Every structure is written in C-alpha cells, then in structure tokens.
Amino acid sequence: MIERRTLLAAGAALPALSACATTGGDIRASMPPLPHDPHSYAKPEEARVLHVSLDLRADFERKALSGVCRLTIAARDDAREIVLDSKGLSIGSVSGNGRELPFTIGENTEELGAPLTIQLNGAREIAIAYESAPNADALQWLTPEQTASGKPFLFSQGQAILTRTWAPTQDSPGIRQTYDVRLVVPEGLKAVMSAEMLTPDGEPAEGGRAFRFRMRNPVPIYLMSLAVGDLAFGSVGPRTGVWAEPSVLERGLYECADMEAMVRAAEALYGPYRWGRYDVLILPPSFPYGGMENPRLTFLTPTFLAGDRSLVSLIAHELAHSWSGNLVTNAVWADSWLNEGFTTYFEGRITEALYGVERANMQNVLAWAEIQQAVREAPADAQRLHLVGERNAEENNSAIVYEKGALFLRTIERIMGRARFDAYLRSYFDRYAFQPMTTQQFLADFRERGVRGDAALEAQLQLDAWAYEPSLPSNAEEPHAETFNQVDHFVRDFLSGSPPAAAPWENWGTYERQRYLQTLPRELTPAQMNALETAFGLNALGNNEVLFNWLELVVANRYEPGVASLESFLTRQGRGKFIRPLYRALMAEDAWGRDLARRIYARARPGYHNLVSGAVDRILAG
Predict the structure, then answer these.
(1) pLDDT tier at 515 (50, 70, 90 boundaries)?
(2) Which of the residues 8, 74, 490, 590 has the least number of beta carbons within 10 Å of its own beta carbon?
(3) What pLDDT, on the 0 to 100 scale, is given for residue 389?
(4) d(CA 432, CA 306)
(5) Is 76 helix (H, G, I), strand (E, B) or coil?
(6) Catalytic one of 402, 428, 516, 601
(7) Exposed, middle or buried by CB within 10 Å (0-12, 13-18, 19+), for 242?
C-alpha cells in the first residue's frame, strides 16, 4: 500500500491546471453522445473527463509511478458520480471542492481491471493521490543490462486499454482528453512524452529532475505515453527528429532520413499536419510493436534498423496515423479498422509518392496473400471489418483490420476515381478532426458526401458487404506487381532443381526477398534448405522481416542449422508480430518444437513486454 500522507504532499506541489484544460460544465453542451464501449467502465453520458493533469515521480527501485492525478470533468447537472477505469492502482485519497470525496473500487477482472467510482458532490475538478503497481501492464521497467546505454529505462504502451494501469482516468478511445504532466526522474535520465516538451533540460527537483509536458489537442488517452532513459536527440528536418539511446542514434538518423519528405507527402494528400513536431523514439528491443503512433513522438522498434532504409514503410505507417487514428479515432475497438485500415491505405499512398507505384504494388500483393490466409483460417466473425461478438480489446486479425481495411479503400478509389476519393478523404479528416468515429457513422457520411445518391455507384461499391460481412466481396480485385513475376520465375527454377544462387538475391529489396521465401513450399528437403542457406546466408540476415520469413521455414522443416539463429532472434527482441507466430509454430510441432519453445522461452521471457509474454504464456499453455 502507498502512504497516503506522501501522496497528499505530492499533490500540494502540483501546479495549477494548464490553460488548455476546459472548464467543467454540463456534458450535453460540451460533448456529443458516444456508443457503448464494452472495454471501459466509464459512463460518458453522465460524466466524462476533459483534461488530465499529472504530477508523478518515477521510482525505478520500486517500479512505480506515484503522485497525483487531477481531472477536469464535464457532467450532467444531476450527475452524482463519475466512473473511471483503473487496474492495479493503489488509491490513497480523492478530493474536490476542498474536501475529500468518497470513492469505491469495484470488482476486478483480468482484462478490464476495476471501476473507480467517485462521488462528485458537485465537484468538477478532482484530485486523486495514487501509485501504479510494479507489474503494471502498460509499463516496462528495464534494467541496465537490458539497454544499450547500460542505464535503466522505462516506457509505457497504452493501446488498447492499458493506460488505466498507470493513470486513473476514462480509458476509452471515444473519450478524448487534453493533458499536462510533470514527471520527476532520477538524475542522469531524461523524460520524453507524446506531447509538447516544455522543459527540454528538466528542472531541479528533489531526488532528480522534473520534466513538464503539455498536449493541447484532445486525444484518446491510450495515446498518452512516456519514456525515461539515457536519451539523445538528432534533427532530421525543421520539425522532425530522432530520440534514441546515444549508441543507437546515428543508425536511427540514417534510417529516418526521409521523415521530413514523408510529412510533406502526407500533407499534400490529406491536409496539414496538426501536431506541431513529428519525432520518433527508438526504444530498446523489448518494445512489443513495430511502432506506436503516439502524437508528436512515435515509438519505434529497433528491429526496423536494417542498415539500408529498406523497412522505412513502418515510419510512413505511423506518420499516417497522425490523420487516421490520432486525428479521427475509432470510438470503440470493434471499429479499429477505421484506424489501421485507413492508415495502411494512407501508408501505401505515401510510399507511392516517394518511392514509386511498383513498390506500393509489391506491398499490396504481399498483403493480398495475408488476407487470403485469414479468410481461409479465421472464423467468420473475425473476418468482418466491424468486429462482432465479445472479444478482448487486443484481439483482432491484423490481415483483416489492416489489410482488408486498406483493400476496401483501394476498391473505393478504383471504382469512383482517385481524385474524387482523395477530395472526400481530405474533407473527412477536416470535418471530423479530433473526434471519434464508428463504422456506421463513416458509411453514412460517405454515402451522403461520396456516393450522393448515385444508385449505380452504390451497387458497385458494396459498402455494407465490406464492412459487415466475412470474406471478400465480389468486387475485390487481386493486385499485381510486375517485379514479382521475375521472383516467381526463380522460385519455380529452384524447385525444378536449379541452384538458388541463380536468383539475383543481392539486387533484390525487402519485398522481393519476402516474396521469394513466402512463395516457397512449407515443406522442403534438407538439401534444399542447405542450398538456400549457403546461397543467401539466411541465418545471418540483418533484415528482421526477411529473417522472420526464413525462420518460419526453419521451424516448419525442423532445420537444425537454423536453430541457433531462431534462438538468437527470439531472445534479442520482443516484437509480437515476430514472436507469437514462431512460438505458435513451434508448439504445433511434436516434442522437437515444443521442447525447443519451452527452452528458448525460459531465457527470453524476462525481456518481453507484458503484452507479449502474456500471449506466449497462453500459447505454451494451450
């Protein structure tokens, strides 16, 4: 338990709420109605959070964030309480209007945590003294041995519903909130956040230095993120740059050289970038995702550092989220395709603008193969863009949410014409900026402003079939990339007995190499596996996307010469996209694969984020 007296003292030092906070008032005048969110305890139709103000201290020894959270609230005039989301938080006290407020913490569930219900007694600004748990799902506290700099590191990961494990607020994507933060960290470390940095060098504070941040734009609270470590900064352009541990910074700057051009290309398509700066933070290898689109400061995995800028589509994707996801956000997680499908489509347009049509075509062909696999293997409910049925907020089939969603938008573009569709999308981002969105709302808006009563166009588009039905509608067209014709030719030659070295592997980029490995049969002879490894040096690849495709073949063929590379790959990074499928494939084997999975996991688990280790726990238990 936290000591209540200490937390109240911390609250006394908290500065006044930022000017960007909106004064609490009647909710009917301040914010529109929201759909029911099954992944939040909040009752936003009665009372909702408008602004979050945090004064926190990062304690690396105890693995805890502690301090005070002040909330500005909009509520109905007759509202007696506000319900917040919390998970594992230790609450010391709640106060408002100069007096303590009664509160209760309801029943806890593994996924949602527990409702924190506070009696308002007329208050529209409340202060909560609290502390996070050492095992908070959103926070990863890394030891010096787990970092490149040899110093401790902390980062948060809020999506989808994990912010509730380090800040008591309403953790629903439809409830947009502004925020300001004062964060005290140990001397010698630097704090960064997904917000405007007000004190670049920090301020003297007891036990360390205090850093202040402010987010003026209302955001879904899963995008409020922080990181603390030995961090250095390098500029890419006038509004873009890279944060990383000092020994990683130069590699990051090289890979991110096109960021400023990407921002300009994105703005040319769908309007101004509205967040001020666009910087990226390259995190230690345990970061569970490829990237996280936190406003102003995208968090990136170091697995994209291929040394040849071959994986920079990841940056284009996260940048595109500054419009689709951050600017216009899915109101509930069942509609996450509105974030990821739109963003994947937008990523392709940025790629095409900077690197050419053929590169975008190759991305689309690889994506088509993922969609086909999902349609073959996933249950019908998981094949719809608007997801139905009870499911974990983290559960979605990425091939559907990302790739089918993008294919839907490319289909609209093909049928109605690019210029007309671009004009609609530009209008869409402008009209719904800083607002939540649902599938039903999007389709209604598109019918009104895009289709405009054209019955023939409506019939061609099959909008409801795309959004609400499984599989693919009949108007889906398989994409093609001329470059892949040559790749497929070399695959056929190899399977007919020609040496793999005949293929121009050294001249191929990432997508050609992926196509080659993905097109090979899953069952190969030992001689064929040896020939591939000898010709291309696959066990030592530096490109993690291509290496992953090779390791899938290693597992499928029980290829012993590749086991050391597999073990290294699973222990030196924790990106869920790579980790989960490989453990799943190992556990689908007989004793050879299962024993190998358990042996590797025993070493690797301490370095994985909670999101990944929890998933792998379930894979190995199943």
Answers:
(1) very high
(2) 590
(3) 73
(4) 37
(5) coil
(6) 402
(7) buried
CA distances from 169 to 42, 192, 448 (A): 9, 21, 36
CA quadruple 536, 537, 538, 544: dihedral sign? negative
CA 277 to chain centre: 19
pLDDT (tens digit per residue) in 539-551: 999 999 999 999 9
Average pLDDT over residues 471-495: 98
Match 């301040």 to its residue by tokens: 30
Pairing of strands 278-282, 297-300: parallel
pLDDT of 392: 79
Given the residues 131, 196, 318, 413, the one annotated as active site: 318
The angle at the Cα of 493, spanning 310 to 480, to the nearest 5 degrees, equals: 50
The count of other CB atoms within 10 Å of the CB of residue 356 is 10
Q: What is the 3-state secondary structure (H, E, C) of 47-65?
A: EEEEEEEEEEEEECCCCEE
pTM of the model: 0.94
Phi, psi (degrees; rounded to nearest 5) at 60: -75, -30
Closest CA to 489 of 479, 480, 502, 478: 502
pLDDT above 50: residue 358: yes
- Asked, as a colleague might, if the bond just before 75 is cis with ω within 30 of 0, I would say no
pLDDT value at position 21? 42
CB neighbours of residue 309 within 10 Å? 15
Give the residue-averaged pLDDT of 526-535: 98
Bridge partners of 81?
A: 119
Answer whether residue 32 shows pLDDT above 80.
no
Asked whether the predicted pLDDT for residue 8 surpasses 50, the reply is: no
The torsion angles phi and psi of 418, rounded to 5 degrees, stand at: -65, -45
Task: Give just the sign of the alpha carbon dihedral 17, 20, 26, 31.
Answer: negative
Q: Is 250 a catalytic residue?
A: no
Average pLDDT over all residues of the chain: 94
402 is catalytic: yes
Q: Are 142 and 148 in contact (CB under 8 A)?
A: no
* Residue entry with tokens 């607020």: 169
Backbone angles phi, psi at 174, to 5 degrees: -80, -15
Q: How far apart are CA 232 and CA 383, in angstroms?
A: 43
Interval 269-288: pLDDT, tens? 999 999 999 999 999 999 99
For every residue of 261-301, DSSP letters joined together read HHHHHHHHHH----SS-EEEEE--TT-SSSEE--TTEEEE-
54 or 590: which carries more pLDDT confidence? 54
pLDDT band at 396 (very low <50, low <70, confident <90, very high): confident
